[in-house]
């Protein structure tokens, strides 16, 4: 393992020149930080997703493009508009304009991914200049040369071996000379076509690079001082956690903790890389360390909430004593690359929840999936739910642990309950309009 740190900065951390300067100081203050991964500046990805997925008039497209250009131009002006950076930024604006107005942009996933990559490519260009102006030698590096994926646009699956090969060949020799600034979320397939890793994939990029370069630590810098007991926007009683295990962090990320991307823990766990989460605005306040083993393993560690859940119920009398029926249903789900979270079954029906946020890069549950399922059985799709999860340790091994949770939930209607698949979580599907209250009451009972 190398004495090396990978630092990732999220969208709010690189939102403008002043925010970027905070991040640059964090990089400069840690001599072990030799690779920096950046997200697109705050607001840019939302605009790009809109351009890639919404039918608009020429004037409306130009309005959205101008919003992106205004954010980037403001940073460039604060940098003093250096000629070389301005020229490269202008080339990216031209590509953005061309793609946004492309007549097939709404139909072609490959074009969408090139368009969606522009945000990170602009912020990495500007951030490397911020570092250089602080006398910290930095190079802007194209992540697509290293982050190799399959050709599944919108949700590329990384090729771990190829990433390790490319990182050792192209990045390792440069680390002593300069800090490498690269893009999160962006990759390319074996034909060098641009791919993306799905929304929030910048954390994942940082973890993949940490694994490929055999780094000791990976820092995720965001706008909050670590991972909290729950979302502090839901209750002001939420407090930051000094430590988390990989298992707890993976559960929290999977079930909605926005601070972490679910896939981040996988490379970190494979190589036992310690992960730090902290605030780029207040680095002095410390943050949360995520490691293989924790000093304490409490029954209740945190509460997460994931919005915009869809519940799909498939039902047919054929299920009664019929071997292989479930495998047919899940074969359809797998064919459409859909990830299922919770599953409950009865004699003749199966209910499952699917994450389907409105601003995701790619709609998960589409008409084709539902039609395939309907060829097999009756299908009911219900929207408007949120998934609330209590994350902890050994939750099913001690009397009274679950009863405290149910006591806090007694005034709420639970649409689905999942418990026991592993010792780290208990999940509930609740009406979206009530989920804030559910989280507050659980937090009061378990943490206050």
List keywords for this structure.
13 helices; 37% helix; 8-stranded mixed beta sheet; globular; single chain; 16 strands; VC0802-like; Carbamate kinase
What's the gyration radius in Å? 23 Å
- Per the CATH scheme, the topology name of the largest domain is Carbamate kinase
- pLDDT averaged over residues: 91
In this structure, how is the largest beta sheet organized? 8 strands, mixed
Helix fraction?
A: 25-40%
Output the strand order for the largest sheet. 3-4-2-1-7-9-10-8
CATH superfamily of the largest domain: Acetylglutamate kinase-like
Which spans have pLDDT < 50 for at least 5 consecutive residues? none
Written as H for each helix and E for each strand, in order along the chain, the element string is: EHEHHHHEHEEEHEEHHEEEHEEHEHEEH
Distance between the termini: 40 Å
Q: What is the CATH architecture annotation of the largest domain?
A: 3-Layer(aba) Sandwich
CATH class of the largest domain: Alpha Beta
Number of domains: 2
Look at the helices and sheets and give the structural class.
Answer: alpha/beta
β-strand number: 16
Your description of this structure?
With 448 residues, the chain is α/β, with parallel strands linked by helices. It has two domains: 2-223, 3-Layer(aba) Sandwich (Carbamate kinase), CATH 3.40.1160.10; 302-447, 2-Layer Sandwich (VC0802-like). The chain is built from 13 helices and 16 strands. The two termini are 40 Å apart. The model has no long low-confidence stretch (mean pLDDT 91).
């Amino acid at each position: 393992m190398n004495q090396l740190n990978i630092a990732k900065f999220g969208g709010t951390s690189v939102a403008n020149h002043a925010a970027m300067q905070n991040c640059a100081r964090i990089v400069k203050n840690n001599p072990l930080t030799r690779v920096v991964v950046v997200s697109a500046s705050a607001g840019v990805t939302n605009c790009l997703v809109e351009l890639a997925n919404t039918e608009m008039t020429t004037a409306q497209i130009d309005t959205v493009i101008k919003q992106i250009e205004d954010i980037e131009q403001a940073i460039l002006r604060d940098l003093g508009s250096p000629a070389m950076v301005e020229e490269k930024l202008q080339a990216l604006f031209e590509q953005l304009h061309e793609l946004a107005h492309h007549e097939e942009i709404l139909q072609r996933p490959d074009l969408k991914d090139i368009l969606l990559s522009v945000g990170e490519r602009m912020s990495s260009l500007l951030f490397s200049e911020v570092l250089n102006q602080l006398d910290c030698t930095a190079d802007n590096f194209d992540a697509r040369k290293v982050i190799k994926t399959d050709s599944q646009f919108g949700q590329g699956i990384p090729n771990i071996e190829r990433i390790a090969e490319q990182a050792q060949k192209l990045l390792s020799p440069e680390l002593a000379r300069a800090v490498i600034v690269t893009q999160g979320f962006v990759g390319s397939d074996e034909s060098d076509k641009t791919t993306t890793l799905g929304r929030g994939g910048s954390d994942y990029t940082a973890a993949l690079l940490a694994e490929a370069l055999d780094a000791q630590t990976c820092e995720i810098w965001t706008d909050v001082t670590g991972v909290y007991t729950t979302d502090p926007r839901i209750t002001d009683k939420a407090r930051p956690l000094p430590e988390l295990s990989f298992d707890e962090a993976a559960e929290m990320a999977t079930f909605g903790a926005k601070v972490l991307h679910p896939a981040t823990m996988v490379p970190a766990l494979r190589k036992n890389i310690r992960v730090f989460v902290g605030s780029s605005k207040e680095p002095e306040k410390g943050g949360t360390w995520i490691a293989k083993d924790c000093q304490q393993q409490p029954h209740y560690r945190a509460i997460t909430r994931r919005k915009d859940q869809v519940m799909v119920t498939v039902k047919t009398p054929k299920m009664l004593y019929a071997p292989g029926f479930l495998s047919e249903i899940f074969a359809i789900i797998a064919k459409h690359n859909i990830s299922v979270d919770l599953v409950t079954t009865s004699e003749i029906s199966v209910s499952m929840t699917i994450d389907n946020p409105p601003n995701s890069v790619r709609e998960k549950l589409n008409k084709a999936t539902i039609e395939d399922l309907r060829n097999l059985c009756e299908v009911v799709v219900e929207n408007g739910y949120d998934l609330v999860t209590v994350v902890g340790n050994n939750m099913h091994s001690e009397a009274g642990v679950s009863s405290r949770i149910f006591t806090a939930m007694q005034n709420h209607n639970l649409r689905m309950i999942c418990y026991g698949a592993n010792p780290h979580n208990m999940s509930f599907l609740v009406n979206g309009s009530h989920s804030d209250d559910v989280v507050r009451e659980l937090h009061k009972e378990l943490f206050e």
